Each structure stands twice: as C-alpha cells, then as structure tokens.
C-alpha cells in the first residue's frame, strides 16, 4: 500500500511539473527591428518585445534577436548555435533577417544574396533536425517616401530570396515585407511617422535633440508589426495559431 501511495505521489508531482512548463517556446532570431532594446534607447522597441502579449500562457517567447546582425554575423558570433543548444522538440524558431544582410556599405555585416539564401536554408535544416518548426519571415519595411509622397522599397532582392527559401524548403512564410508595406502605404507619408522612432527635440528624454529614424519602431510601431505577424500566423497552417489570444 505504501509503495502504491508513493507511486501515486510521484505521478502527481510529475503532472504538476509538466503543467508548469510551457508546451511551446518560440525562439526569435533576427535583427534590430525585432530585438530587445536597452532602457537608454527607449521608446525604441523591437516588435519581438510585443509578441508575447498575443499568445496565451502556453507559449513562451525567447527573443534572441540582436541589433545590427545579419545571417552571417548571427552565425559567426555563435548566436545561432545558442538557439540550437536550447531548442526542444515541438518548439518554433522564427527567422527574420535582411536589413543588415543587404547593407553593402557595411562590410562588417553584409551578406551576399547567395550566402543569405544558403544561411536561411541552413537555419531551416538545423531547426528541423531538432524536431522543431522553422518559420521564415521576410524583413519589415523601412519607411521611405519620395518627393511625390510615393512609397518605395529599398530591400532589393532579399525579400524574394526569403520567399524562394520558404518555397524550396517547403517551410511556412510570414510575409512581413508585404504586410508592413501595405500598412505604410495605407497610412501614408505623414501618418506612418507615428510608428517609427521619429520625434522633434524635447519630446523624448533619451533623444533631447530629436530623432528621425525611419527603420526602427517606437512602442506603437512595434505593436503594429507584432499584430501583422499574428495576422500572418492566423492565415497560416501553423499549429501555434491555436495559442493566439
């Protein structure tokens, strides 16, 4: 009888431990548009910082994105290996790069189109080898309008390379490039400023002289980008969508 009671207690404790663990972790691999921000840089906000709020308690967001990283430097610095050492079967890895890969004038981070594509394919293969689910995301748009107030893109062929990798590897694609572009066009040149790190002098304590950053988001912009990612998930075949609030 005592052995039976002991066995029952062990089963109950194991059940409690299992209930306390989130069944899914979504690891975020990306650049500054997704990354956590230092206090002294606020209100700059990576959209990955706002992602957790869209999921129920069964999902944990682990944001490994870092400012200034390309697929190449993310690998060289061991950041990709860090994720692979942590990821468990059933987890997800969301992969979004491009802003720094396509920056030819920044030789410390530039990645050729061929290497960019190959790196994305490597990320997919290694994630699957861990029995986890890779998800590719095209880069979010920079805010760019010409003298006529017409929106234009500056990412060149890189978003299409993500789409190609997703098709070739038969992996889910969240087309943030397309979704964010549509949003900026809808808002227009003036209203779209409200999403970015743009302010006159004296508005934000961390930027007393003002700032005109058309790449990085403020809190509202990060929330909007996270919302777009959630919309993309909702329209996908990803099982994780059942955990959206």
Overview of the structural elements:
With 245 residues, the protein is an alpha/beta fold. The chain has a single domain, classed as SGNH hydrolase (Rossmann fold, 3-Layer(aba) Sandwich), CATH 3.40.50. The protein contains seven helices and seven strands. The strands form two sheets. The protein has a five-stranded parallel sheet, sandwiched between helices. It has a two-stranded antiparallel ribbon with strand order 6-7. The chain is globular, with a radius of gyration of 20 Å. Residues 1-21 have low confidence and may be disordered.
Give keywords.
15% strand, 7 strands, five-stranded parallel β-sheet, two-stranded antiparallel ribbon, single chain, Rossmann fold, disordered N terminus, alpha/beta
CATH topology: Rossmann fold
Number of helices: 7
**Secondary structural class:** alpha/beta
Outline the low-pLDDT stretches: 1-21
| Strand arrangement in the largest pleated sheet | 2-1-3-4-5
Biggest beta-sheet profile: 5 strands, parallel
Judging by the overall fold, what is the CATH architecture?
A: 3-Layer(aba) Sandwich
How many domains, as an integer? 1
Corresponding CATH superfamily: SGNH hydrolase
Mean pLDDT over all positions = 92
Number of strands: 7
Helix content: 25-40%
Query: How big a fraction of the residues is strand?
Result: 5-15%
């Amino acid at each position: 009888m005592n052995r039976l009671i002991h066995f029952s207690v062990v089963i109950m404790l194991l059940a409690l431990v299992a209930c306390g663990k989130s069944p899914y972790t979504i690891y975020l691999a990306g650049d500054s548009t997704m990354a956590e921000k230092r206090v002294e840089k606020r209100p700059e906000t990576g959209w990955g910082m706002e992602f957790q709020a869209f999921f129920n308690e069964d999902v944990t967001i682990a944001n490994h994105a870092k400012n200034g990283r390309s697929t190449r430097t993310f690998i060289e610095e061991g950041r990709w290996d860090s994720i692979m050492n942590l990821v468990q079967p059933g987890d997800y890895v969301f992969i979004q790069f491009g802003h720094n890969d396509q920056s030819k004038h920044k030789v410390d981070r530039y990645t050729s189109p061929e290497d960019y594509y190959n790196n994305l394919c490597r990320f997919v293969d290694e994630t699957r080898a861990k029995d986890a689910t890779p998800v590719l995301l095209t880069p979010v748009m920079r805010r760019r309008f010409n003298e006529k107030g017409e929106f234009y893109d500056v990412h060149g062929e890189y978003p299409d390379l993500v789409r190609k990798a997703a098709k070739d590897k038969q992996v889910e694609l969240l087309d943030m490039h397309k979704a964010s572009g549509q949003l900026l066009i809808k808002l227009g040149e003036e209203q779209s400023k409200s999403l970015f790190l743009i302010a006159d002098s004296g508005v934000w304590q961390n930027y007393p002289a003002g700032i005109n950053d058309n790449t990085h988001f403020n809190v509202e912009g990060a929330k909007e980008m996270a919302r777009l990612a959630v919309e993309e998930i909702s329209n996908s075949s990803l099982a994780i969508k059942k955990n959206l609030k």
